[in-house]
Amino acid sequence: MRNTFILCALLALGSYSFAQQPERFPLGEYQELADPKPHDSDEAWDQLSVPTRLSWGSTDIRYTKHDIPDVKISDRWRGKAWRGERVNAQAVLWTRTGIEDASIEVSELRRGSSVIPASAVSAHFVRYVMTDELNKDRKGGCGVRENKAEWDSSLVADVLDIVKIRDIQARSTQPIWLRVQVPRDAEPGRYKGTLTVTGKSADPMRLRFEVEVLQRTLPEAKDWAFHLDLWQNPYAVARYYQVPLWSEAHFEAMRPIMRMLADAGQRSITASIMHKPWAGQTQDHFDSMVTRIKKIDGTWRYDYAVFDKWVEFMMNEIGIDDIISCYTMIPWALTFDYYDEATNRVQFINTKPGEAAYADYWGSFLKDFARHLRQKGWFEKTSISMDERPMEAMREAIKVIKQADPEFKISLAGNYHPEIQEDLYYLSIPYGHQFPADVKKAREAKGQISTVYTCCAEAFPNTFTFSAPAEAAWTVLHAVAGGYDGYLRWAVNSWTIDPLRDSRFRTWAAGDTYSIYPGPRSSIRFERLMEGLQDCEKIHQLRSELKGGKLEKLNRTVAKFTPEGLAETQQSASEMVDELHRLLNSF
Amino acid sequence: MRNTFILCALLALGSYSFAQQPERFPLGEYQELADPKPHDSDEAWDQLSVPTRLSWGSTDIRYTKHDIPDVKISDRWRGKAWRGERVNAQAVLWTRTGIEDASIEVSELRRGSSVIPASAVSAHFVRYVMTDELNKDRKGGCGVRENKAEWDSSLVADVLDIVKIRDIQARSTQPIWLRVQVPRDAEPGRYKGTLTVTGKSADPMRLRFEVEVLQRTLPEAKDWAFHLDLWQNPYAVARYYQVPLWSEAHFEAMRPIMRMLADAGQRSITASIMHKPWAGQTQDHFDSMVTRIKKIDGTWRYDYAVFDKWVEFMMNEIGIDDIISCYTMIPWALTFDYYDEATNRVQFINTKPGEAAYADYWGSFLKDFARHLRQKGWFEKTSISMDERPMEAMREAIKVIKQADPEFKISLAGNYHPEIQEDLYYLSIPYGHQFPADVKKAREAKGQISTVYTCCAEAFPNTFTFSAPAEAAWTVLHAVAGGYDGYLRWAVNSWTIDPLRDSRFRTWAAGDTYSIYPGPRSSIRFERLMEGLQDCEKIHQLRSELKGGKLEKLNRTVAKFTPEGLAETQQSASEMVDELHRLLNSF
């Protein structure tokens, strides 16, 4: 069986690379990769008496593409929402005969004369992307995966397409994602609408849905208590959209992507202050947003045109303006770029924290950078950011920063080190690690931010393309349960070479590097993350309001979202998230 | 026989590359490559009754390294010189037994109480460098020579070493070059000196020499009428000396090299205003001396720190300040560099004269460049320079230059084109081509410079390392005879990878790319060129002074230095140069 899988995966790869020659970097309609997995036979499909069926399903399930879904037929979905909340539902369609030119129509939602307009409702064909699996020891998804055939590949439902009309193949399943953005000023009450699927030679099929708008109002994302930090990759956007870096077209492409982040409560702007801060670990490496020129007399000259344009865009057009995270002073490869006037080339210095050349390179820059940031009024928002590096190197780097300007904010995503934690305005530590209670309290008192991160290391919870959808919500709910200020993830749009079709990458389990797709297209993962983030804010609201037994009940339910809670419970992540969700809507 | 040569050449190469592992880029003592040629046998050498002999020889001869020289023994050399002239003589030593720690001593020159000090006299061991040969059709030395084995290689005497003590191998010939710089204020008359060779266990050997200082005075090189233009390559110096480009150490290394050029009457500073103006045809490609930044808003920013430092060095420290030749607007590969702020990379535009992108790239630059040059007071000295390119391209480039600033000087090394010659302040045309008499006159009247150039194309005259030494003088005398204002050669120090040992290059006949060696070391070629240049100035002086029969005789002798004169005469180049030389010292 294993061999068959590998063979199929190879065939899928092969047909993709050589035979089909699909459009590079599609933004509109595109063809999915071939399904490398065994699935329901033609005979099984052909036994279906009704050619095409449509039913409500669950947002917890990634329906497989070529299997008849195991679904309890239902034509009515009911949900609850706070005012200002975004709610999701998933329908599933399966067809023996296929549907040409299928499209989905959603009505406005009505409650007597009150209306949630159709523009607040959207429906998406859920599309299939190639994924792989956890490491063989099931302990996570880290490590190199150059040889894709070593990993079991499969097609999974994840992408929420923006293409509105498409052919649905015979003998296939087509999930449909429904999203309702409840207006903040909606009158509470029960709103009803319909979702209709039509096709060229198919009778329209209808599903009903209801959203019960509750009394409570969710604040705007920018006012949420939760500190969200998903690292943006502008370089991936320029490459995929084939537009010149930092051109108007580039910003136009980035605008809706970055707005998705703002809508999720994103706090930080990811800025790179050197070439390849992470040794080019993503398909599209980050480059320096700072122009750094070494003059022939050995002095440095800096220019911030790129940095300024990016930061101003994020602040003024997108509304993300809390922190400018500047990566990094301790890259994984200790080589530092500059344009060398003498040779008319970008050159690299090899040096490391503690050395004179390092102090010269960074000290000179940081002094000028501080001057520039103060001039722009951004100094207080800017943080010189590092990833986990050896303790001694971090200490030396901190020394250089403080020498350049003692008021510089410094941040780290890495292990908790008591020796340097005080110096770190923003410190994100790995899943499973804790801040000592007194330290966390002291950090709060000083206005320092203390969050948790996940990456390839976690088998659970994660947002790989094969992870259970509810894990996305679980992850951020864990941040609240664990007493952290928020959550950090190192990538949200570091796309693979062909991200719509293939989420597998040369390193790490598939999907690790992005949850927003080109288009932009949201994903099951991103929407479930968004649900979790909304629930985090609901918890925040309710904790300041509830008292006694209700508060205790809330806290008890929240407390399950920890490694300890997880070890005790018999519930699945989906059940836990669902339970909490219902509880939050019950007060 | 041919096969033996190739085998020997391969062995020489082999031993050089793999076995010996010689020092890279030596500046002091170094070992020559093995001699790939058959030569006098050990038996022949062993028949010599006197173990070591020393005699005056001729500067016209490259004595072979392992042959007993065919020389009429003479212990006294007599030369004549104008005051201020530099004169050369060559002695030759050959030894059956070898000499350990050989050194040469030269005395001051005395004439009663008058003295030419020893500091004005120098003696050099002549060293052997690997050369090849003309093309198989004997028509020149152009074309690719990647496979060295296809060309007959030999060791030739050319380098005038600066190392003063060295071991002379048994059974070998060691030429010695004597150079006397007659002070401009020397009293006329006959000066006598001695050259002494000593060694560890050898009796000192002495040669006498006399220089008759004549009444006439040669002006300083910077005042010579002849327009000399040997293109400098600063990039080769930085690589060979292993010093950072444009550092103090780099200028220190260049100083004595560029002074050699100034002493020869060099007029032009070779400046590169783009990356690889000649598509990297030399071992060390030229890069842009201009920093050219494309901002993210599409505007250009320029910086001239490198250009200014180089030009100021040449003008103020070296004294070469007539023309700043800026290469080029029409490179051989039509790709134009800039540092791109957006991508933090040096990028390239592919465009060509006549296109909008070309006009933008150059028009914008030239306007700013003109502003900068005027500010520095250099505008009148600067020439935007091109090599031969298709007529239409040159016309379009000239249009762009004139649009940027109609007063820009323009120069070309290429064929004579009546359509554009008027636009060319400085025009150098190939050997064998003539300016129409009326055009030459009109150009003179306008102060335009009209010279001749040679390159790989000439089998004769040339300065390949295997060319007859007198050809170097012949070449520049030809410029005077042909009625040109001077002479251009495209390279004087574009060194091969191992220039002291191997003058062969991946293209063109050996020695084409340089006549000054690292150290710097002069060469037989450079000294004979210098003699020719001195003679050119003597002709210039005498022509304004002599009348009647003497002037006619001078002009008749000069006129031989043309392709026509050459076709008529029975004399060799050496004889022609010698005859003219004697004539110039006879008036």
Features:
homodimer; 24 strands; 587 residues; alpha/beta; disordered N terminus
Explain what this protein looks like in three dimensions:
- Two copies of one chain form a homodimer.
- Helices cover 29% and strands 26% of the residues of chain A.
- Chain A contains 13 helices and 24 strands.
- In chain A, the strands form five sheets. In chain A, strands 13-24-23-22-21-20-17-14 form an eight-stranded parallel β-sheet. Chain A has a five-stranded antiparallel β-sheet with strand order 1-3-10-7-8. In chain A, strands 2-12-11-4-9 form a five-stranded mixed β-sheet, with no helix packed on it.
- The longest helix of chain A has 21 residues.
- The radius of gyration of chain A is 25 Å and the shape is globular.
- The interface between A and B is medium-sized, with 24 and 24 residues.
The geometry of chain A reads as: globular
Strand order of the largest sheet of chain A: 13-24-23-22-21-20-17-14
Largest sheet of chain A: 8 strands, parallel
Subunit arrangement of the protein: homodimer
Q: Considering DSSP H and I runs of 4 or more, what fraction of the residues of chain A is helical?
A: 25-40%
What is the SS-derived class of chain A?
A: alpha/beta
What is the first-to-last residue Cα distance of chain A? 50 Å
Average pLDDT of chain A works out at 95
User: In angstroms, what is the radius of gyration of chain A?
Assistant: 25 Å
Number of helices in the DSSP assignment of chain A: 13
Poorly predicted regions of chain A: 1-19
